[in-house]
Amino acid sequence: MVRNKRPGQRLAFLPSAEVAALAECLVAFANGDGGLIVLGLNENGRATDSIWEEEAEGALLEAVSLCRPPVPSHWQPVEMGTAVLVGINVPRSADLHSLDDGRVLIRSGAANRLLSGDEIRNLAASKNTAEFELELVPGARPDDLNPDTIREYLDMRERRGAAKVNDLDQLLFEIGATDRDGNPTVVGMLLFGKNPQAFFPQSGVVFVKFPGTEPRGGDGGIGYGRRDELTGPLARIVERAWNVVFEEMRVGATVSQLEREELTEYPRFAVREALVNAVAHRDYRITGRRIEIRMYADRLEIISPGGLPGYMTVDNLVEEHFSRNPRLVSGLYQWGYIEELGLGIDQMIEDMVQAGQEPPQFNAMPHSFTVTLTNKRDRAPIPKWTHNMNERQTRALTYIRENGSITNREYQQLCPSVSAETLRRDLVDLVDRGLLLKIGSKKGTNYILK
Q1: Chain-centre distance of CA 103, in angstroms?
Q2: In which element (H, E) is residue 242 found?
Q3: Could you tell me which CATH class the domain 202-374 is placed in?
Q4: Measured between alpha carbons, how far is 13 from 112 in angstroms, rounded to an integer?
Q5: DSSP assignment letter at 32
Q6: In whole angstroms, how far apart are CA 41 and each of 4, 11, 341, 400?
Q7: Calculated CA dihedral for residues 248, 249, 254, 260, nearest 10 degrees
Q8: pTM for this one?
């Protein structure tokens, strides 16, 4: 069903079977994490002219001929009320695809974006290593997988709407957890292994709590307040990591309109999303280093081995999505640990800002990626009506609350990688909602809270 859904990272609507637009979507989805193209809908999800299957089939054949190499896909009927629309499911591809004119596209939010030369090279390098998940684990046997863990996964998968599984061996093969003979792959061992760390010692997590703001003990010497080593399949690691962090978080309360609301040191979703992302996206090829969770008096650091994958940068983390471990991500999504693919970072930022805290800090190094959450609260929480804003607008409101006003130039300095026209529309939208007042005109224009 696509009712009430909008185009996004893995969903595209095309009003007609126009060959060039279809080819661009095929390439963009295949180069990313895959997606679904629905024909006969405009960008608002409203039906346009009917598109017959024969017309769609002819357009798809022409569109595929414009892709280098051809992009694999399959038909998927899409229900919309009483109508059934033509859908084209495009899986993530192990190849790097371009159009016949040389352009390489990637899906960026609800649009297809042209990649630069450096981005193409980085994406190609990631494609070459993407099959690591499917490698067989040396020395592992079918009975090294835990049937209870697999059963839990199946139960959660069915609760999320998946069909009941009749052939377990076939499903495990299809999701990449085993080969045809039932031997565990890397992704199978990490998700369902009885003891994954026996084969991948680097797949565990280390939690350390320091009493101050530096990595030392209370007396200033070498030491820490608590240290835990977390092991098991990835779902268990996520839960154990969350429980340990929550045990160590300070918890208070606030009263608003006679209702008591729990106030944690860090927003729950922000912590959980940072933990899940570290487990789902770390580079498991890097041996000798585990995910580290460092809890200080003023901040929480989650350090994941491996730099950002593919064309991803700190600047496009909110708008775009690319998985180093797509099968791991899919498994955790089916399990319920990932709510919706590609939508977690912006909510993490929003929850931190709404709680009156600094946005998360992201530090990307060649061989590690660090998320830092600070517990400093030096301003009142942002009201709940910011929930429907994008991350840029939330950042603008935070700036206004701290500085009294904002100009177009100051907004551009806050968001240097975003076009001036997009930022102008952001501010106009906030004015239209009645949240900001526009003062002055032309170069003297500034915006204040209404």
Answers
A1: 25
A2: helix 234-248
A3: alpha beta
A4: 12
A5: T
A6: 12, 12, 22, 39
A7: -60
A8: 0.76
Report residue 247 as tokens: 């045990």
- CA 5 from chain centre, in angstroms, equals 18
Buried (b) or exposed (e) across 210-249, using 16+ Cβ within 10 A?
bbeeeeeeeeeeeebeeebebbbbbbebbebbbebbeebe
Task: Report yes or no: 49 and 16 within 8 Å, Cβ to Cβ.
Answer: yes
**CATH C-level class of 385-449:** mainly alpha
What are 223's two structure tokens?
């030491």
* Ranges 52-56, 157-161, 256-260: which has the least confidence: 256-260
Cα–Cα distance, 291 to 230 (Å, whole number):
10
Residues 6+ apart with CB under 8 A from 152: 235
CA 303 to CA 252: how far, in whole Å? 27
Q: How does pLDDT run across 226-243, given as a tens digit for each residue? A: 999 999 999 999 999 999
> Residue 58 — φ and ψ, nearest 5°?
-65, -40
Fold of 11-115: 3.30.950
Other C-beta atoms closer than 10 Å to the C-beta of 97 total 21
Domain assignments of the chain as residue spans, ordered by start: 11-115, 133-201, 202-374, 385-449
Coil, helix or strand at residue 289? coil
- Please choose, from the candidates 426, 427, 384, 386, the residue with its C-alpha nearest in 3D space to the C-alpha of residue 405: 427
pLDDT of residue 224: 80
CB-based contacts of 36, cutoff 8 Å, min separation 6: 10, 11, 12, 76, 78, 87, 88, 89, 90
Q: What is the pLDDT of residues 339-397, one digit of tens each?
A: 766 567 888 888 888 888 888 999 999 899 999 999 986 555 555 555 567 778 888 88
